[in-house]
Write a structure and sequence with these properties.
Elements: H1 14-21, H2 31-51, H3 75-90, E1 93-98, E2 105-106, E3 114-122, E4 133-141, H4 152-155, E5 162-170, E6 174-179, E7 184-190, E8 195-200, E9 211-213, H5 224-235, E10 239-240, H6 246-256, E11 259-262, H7 275-288, E12 292-294, E13 314-317, H8 319-331
Parallel strand pairs: 1-3, 9-10, 9-11
Antiparallel strand pairs: 1-2, 3-4, 4-5, 5-6, 6-7, 7-8, 11-13, 12-13
Helix pairs in contact: 2-3, 5-8
Bound molecules: 2,5-anhydro-1,6-di-O-phosphono-D-mannitol (AHM) and magnesium ion (MG).
Magnesium ion binds near residues 99, 119, 122 and 278.
Pathway: Carbohydrate biosynthesis
Family: Belongs to the FBPase class 1 family.
Enzyme class: hydrolase
Length: about 325
């Protein structure tokens, strides 16, 4: 039961769950709940497109509509369009930062309280080969007063200011996992019913694990500490698992226990992943599930961003594993 004593259980639909959980916010107006529903709806649409991805080139053969030529576009572009539409039409959002857009999208929505940072379709190199991909989103409350023009301080908030964050994993099942700061819950999509159902209530990450996920092809470009930590993983005969889709790698490690690393490399001193719409959301979820996220020096959620698409090294996963990796980094300094 939640704080109000209302019961929910495995099998509760996402809509009902969101309604129950509204009581976590005693003065809530329901806008965040509506925003989460908007995101879930866009996720269903992207799920449908993702499932059809293999048919994209033969779409004409079975009479797919072509109103806006969208099916000719790449899936990450389509996903961006879908989420942009859902977020801008819903009315709760005033500004969006997206991996697919160079600048902040100012929706000029005077009543929109929330700022959303989103990677509409992450891991897009995996689309063409039918491997799991994901959507990642962070939600912030705007800092400046409602109705005034959007300012950079509304956008450049550290991850610790997130009011909600989540991801959608388009995998062997499609799942939505999110947090509003009261634990992490996972919902699995039932295609034939068109509903997300609570399947993973109150996810708790194992304190340690035996899986490490890193692009080992870049080993020659790693710093000493990372090398030493991975050597330790090997000495302990941990399993190497790397999908190359952040959401999928993170999700597996969250449930089974493990660590994901995208460290600094020679060519990318800040790693590859983006702070605003990749690292922050997963860091918030990790911490809410009892796991940990760092850039090797500081907690991801404490980093104050200075640019929209800034990158950060990311070490995320089971607490003891992340701590051990940090130890190696500090020792090799
Ligand atoms: P993308 O935003 O261009 O899709 O890149 C992000 C992806 C992550 O999903 C994944 O963990 C990582 O890039 C893989 O990078 P690499 O191929 O360098 O190992
Ligand atoms: Mg991405």
């Amino acid at each position: 039961p939640d704080q109000s004593g209302m019961a929910y259980s495995v099998g509760t639909t996402l809509d009902r769950f969101i309604k129950f959980k509204q009581s976590d916010f005693p003065f809530a107006s329901g806008e965040l709940s509506q925003l989460l529903r908007d995101i879930a709806l866009a996720a269903k649409i992207v799920n449908r497109e993702t499932n059809r991805a293999g048919l994209a080139n033969i779409g004409g053969a079975f009479g797919q509509t072509n109103v806006q030529g969208e099916e000719q576009q790449k899936l990450d572009v389509i996903a961006n369009i879908r989420f942009m539409r859902a977020l801008s039409k819903g009315g709760e959002v005033c500004a969006i930062v997206s991996e697919e857009e160079d600048a902040v999208i100012d929706l000029k929505n005077k009543s929109g309280k929330y700022v959303v940072a989103i990677d509409p379709l992450d891991g897009s190199s995996n689309i063409d080969v039918n491997i799991s991909i994901g959507t990642i989103f962070s939600i912030y409350r705007r800092k400046t007063p409602l109705g005034s023009p959007i300012q950079m301080e509304d956008i450049m908030q550290p991850g610790s200011e997130q009011v909600a964050a989540g991801y959608v994993l388009y995998g062997s099942s499609t799942m939505l996992v999110y947090t509003t700061g009261f634990g992490v819950n996972g919902f699995t999509y039932e295609t034939s019913l068109g509903e997300f159902f609570l399947s993973h209530p109150q996810i708790k990450a194992p304190k340690s694990g035996k899986i490490y996920s890193i692009n080992e092809g870049l080993e020659l470009d790693w710093q000493e500490g990372i090398k030493n930590y991975i050597d330790e993983c090997k000495a302990k005969r941990y399993a190497a698992r790397y999908i190359g889709s952040l959401v999928a790698d993170f999700h597996r490690n969250l449930l089974k226990g493990g660590i994901y690393l995208y460290p600094a490399t020679k060519n990318n001193p800040n790693g590859k992943l983006r702070l605003l719409y990749e690292a922050n959301a997963l860091a918030f979820i990790a911490e809410q599930a009892g796991a940990k996220a760092t850039d090797g020096k500081s907690r991801i959620l404490d980093i104050v961003p200075d640019s929209l698409h800034q990158r950060t090294p990311l070490l995320i996963g089971s607490e003891e594993m992340v701590d051990q990796a940090i130890k190696h980094i500090e020792k090799s300094k």
